[in-house]
């Protein structure tokens, strides 16, 4: 090989090495900022400024949720030098093993960087915070950060308020860099569904430090700092007084109360029992309290009003009355006799025969079995399945069998069986009205949540439409921007068919099965339900609205394993309607005392609770 070829090869090798170095230098200087940021953090510290979380008020502007200062111990790993581990662990009251384990956990977390602050110890006690402030200069790389935690003015409405907790790795991944290890996020209730409104916007402060991490002042006088933006304040639609009364009335009972303002769809109360104090989910012991509640066999964390499906029982007869008229198989004068039941479906003693209004008032099972049979066996359809599909569509238009879209997480869809369900059970074209006759009285496979019950009541109160139920009335003083909460959803039933049903519901309270719910001076329209429960005593159910004309409140009450609808559910609903409409609930003292003192949770092996 001659010398010119050798020189060429050496030149090419030299060029190749130079190109590799240049590419690497470009990558380090322009693309990879880790070295730059590490160098900057020797003199600059980037401090996150956490905003105050938005406050929460009830519909009367009573403060429900506010903020309180907490102190987190932060660490910047690459600034920890010459640490006296024994002294540090003594102040924090932890072992060296705990110290090592915490550092290891921080290094494994998403978004970890040695030059970035991470939470070492959450929510220092006041004495511990004071001790660290005195010795912080000895613990290079550690600092105390002030944040805010939630405080609840009242010990109720836990399922509405929800709670906040530390972000998970998944939360961090989904946040596009907003959250980091140790941050807090809404976990349930409105804290979760309105997290982006409540959390505010983080700010940033740049601080100059010396080689020993001692603060030297603001970087360029704060020219590049950005202030935190406080979270938006939220006004709920609930009435704190009504919510508290509902929880008091359901003490020592298992069940739900849902109250709605029919015209707007605003939720006035959402009671789930058993419940818990939301203040259990603040402070250092929130994790322990969560596990205790999670293991509680009464399932206090389960949001029954949103997710528990129940057979509606006789309250379903109201919808049967409307759908029967819509499908032209029923009119106000339609009369059926009752011989203490219909085939294998029993009924209680009452006058007979009855027309529609009277059948609603006395809750005749035989009458509504006949109505259901006439709907599903309607001769204008080629087959039972075709008629049933129309029945399904009409019932579903009241908000049953699907999620309504309430602005809270955890809503269930309930269960309204489609024709295909019975096709799978019995075979196509091998079932008929008598096969599914129990649907006519709200039994069988039906599963309806208390929220759906109250919403259907609101649709009847409005004579044909409902507005999607929602819990947030306004955000920073402006009406809830979600257009869904201003839209009327019309049922498939013509408005002309509602008056006779409303009169029948009025008769239920005036001289029928819910006479106990009467309130002097207020016209109430309601319907009792006694829902069969294969696992124990029947469920006590009642839904109602008041006043009869221009209604202001629609309510549904479910008390598990409590017997007749008039025994527990109707009186509780009556007391709550009186509170909302008059501001009083103590005019019937004997009834109030019986409801407040009733204990239906004594040990009973036959009690069965709905599964989440």
Do you know the CATH topology of the largest domain? Beta-lactamase
How many beta-strand segments? 21
**CATH top level label of the largest domain:** Alpha Beta
Structural category is alpha+beta
Considering DSSP H and I runs of 4 or more, what fraction of the residues is helical?
A: 25-40%
Shape: elongated
Give the termini distance in whole angstroms: 83 Å
Structure write-up:
Strand 19 and strand 20 (539-546) form a beta hairpin. With 612 residues, the protein is of the alpha+beta class. The protein folds into two domains: 53-82 and 93-201 and 225-232, Penicillin-binding protein 2a (Domain 2), CATH 3.90.1310; 240-597, Beta-lactamase (3-Layer(aba) Sandwich), CATH 3.40.710. Helices cover 34% and strands 18% of the residues. Strands 2, 3, 4, 5, 10, 16 and 17 form a seven-stranded mixed sheet that branches. Strands 12-11-21-20-19 form a five-stranded antiparallel sheet. A three-stranded antiparallel sheet has the order 1-8-9, with no helix packed on it. The chain contains 21 helices and 21 strands. It is elongated and about 115 Å long.
